[in-house]
Amino acid sequence: MIRCGFHGLSYESIVHALGSELAPRTVIAHLGSGASLCALKDGRSVHTSMGMTPTGGIPMATRSGDLDPGVLIHMLRNELLDAGALEALVKKHCGLKALSSSDDDMPALLARRDKGDAEATLTVDVFCMAIRKTIGAYAAASANTARRFARKCSMDSRL
Asked: Which class for 14: exposed (0-12), middle (13-18), buried (19 or more C-beta within 10 A)?
């Protein structure tokens, strides 16, 4: 099995559009109904948030994003789902739609959040936290970033 990643044409287009303005180490986010992040080094992908299928990574409109394998085992054993039903669940009935109990559209979720809707607030918070965690992981995986962080930690005992 291999980690494929998705949204490659989108990322390639952004790299091409940025041209010489592209920083040597960059994280690009493709945020739509399907969503992913890609860490680039010198314009080439070195990390992607999606895995073998587009269900991995950050939560999307109807896709789960990364999921503890124990959840899947629990669903198979206790919810009496077969593989096909489980696949349909993580592809079409999870993500923003499930968290919010209805909406898989970010503008609609933001409007609900702004009106004080707790489910919409939670959904937007979970989505944004997943993005922040992924960007942070990519930054930590960068050797230069890791060295700068280690140096900062050794100089500042509050960290």
From this structure: middle
